[in-house]
Amino acid sequence: MSVPMAVAADDGLVEELAGLVGRPHVLAPGEDHAPYVVDWRGRYHGKALAVVKPASTAEVAAVVALCARRGIAIVPQGGNTGMCGAATPDAEGRSVVLRLDRLNRVRAVNPLANSITVEAGCILQAIQEAAAGVDRLFPLSLGAEGSCQIGGNIATNAGGTAVLRYGNTRELVLGLEVVLPDGSRLDRLQGLRKNSSGYDLKQLFIGAEGTLGVVTAATLKLFPRPRVSALAMVALPEIEAALTLLGRLRDAVGDRLTSLEAMSRGQVEVIAEHVPDVPIPFALEAPWYLLIELTDTLASTNLRTPLEEVLAAALEEGLVTDAVLAESGAQAGALWKIRHSVSEGSKRAGYVVSHDSVVPIENAPLFARNVERRILEEVPGARVVMHGHVGDGNLHVLAILDARQFPDAVTAAPVARRINAVVDDETAALGGVISAEHGIGISNRDRLGRVTDPVELLLMRRVKDLLDPTGIMNPGKVHPPGA
Question: Which parts of the chain have pLDDT scores under 70?
Answer without folding.
Answer: 1-10, 482-483
